[in-house]
Amino acid sequence: MGCTPEQAAFNVATGPAYSFFTEGGELVGCGGVRIYGVGEAWLITGDKAKGEMKKTLLQTTANTMDKIVRDERLWTLIADSAKNGNFLEHIGFKKIEAYKWEAGQ
User: Fold this and answer.
1) For 23-33, how does the pLDDT look when each residue is reduced to its tens digit (9 = 90+)?
2) pLDDT digits (tens, 9 = 90+) for 82-92
3) Domains in the chain and their CATH numbers?
């Protein structure tokens, strides 16, 4: 799907996660929020997410992120993705200019 078993374990261990399936039980994608002071949204999708399930995935992801923010009482939720900006804006994220520190600079 796009991540290592170690990355998947980290994602699940650091906050709530969800999986999205077709009615036939085929995995479309999974996502969630890593919580450590602020929430960091993540999403991994399969091929179905680009086709027939795209609109449903957009709606489901937006609703799920809203629920996680309320349930976890987050004051902010961030997402960092250069290639998925359009998706993020469709589900309600606002583009901001930010600075970040990267290890090993």
Assistant:
1) 998 888 888 88
2) 667 788 888 88
3) 5-90 (3.40.630.30)
